[in-house]
Amino acid sequence: MKLHGIPLSGHTHRVQLFLGLLGIPYEFAAVDPAGGANRTPAFLAMSPFGEIPAPTLADVAAFSYIAHAPEGGVSLKPYPRIRAWLDQVRALPGFVAMPATTAGVAPEVY
User: Fold this and answer.
1) What is the pLDDT of residues 40-51, one digit of tens each?
2) 20 to 30 A Cα–Cα from 84, which one of 26, 52, 62, 92?
């Protein structure tokens, strides 16, 4: 795994800490956003929003909620960049898809 990040970033540090706790080896690639490194075509191909660190485990954690939004009646058709991000996460090595559910929107209780 290669982690692209800013060396002094708290976000990058959290990902590094998590990878270390899990014992997952990774290669670190420093990114200089002030120099526009996160806006190059190569970086945007990896992280369509130019976000740093990229990709992160947070992407994987958020994926299940966003990918299953249509099951709750939320269409992702108007959001091509979100759909591109979903495809990026699906392409990560070792990705395992969650099966679709028949979950619906719960009635309001309050």
Assistant:
1) 998 888 777 787
2) 26
- Separation of alpha carbons 38 and 50, rounded Å: 5
Backbone angles phi, psi at 41, to 5 degrees: -55, -40
What whole-number distance in Å separates Cα of residue 70 and Cα of residue 8? Answer: 37
Between these two residues, 67 and 32, which has the higher pLDDT value?
A: 32
Distances (CA, A) of 86 to 16, 25, 101: 23, 24, 18
Beta-strand runs (E) in 26-99: 27-30
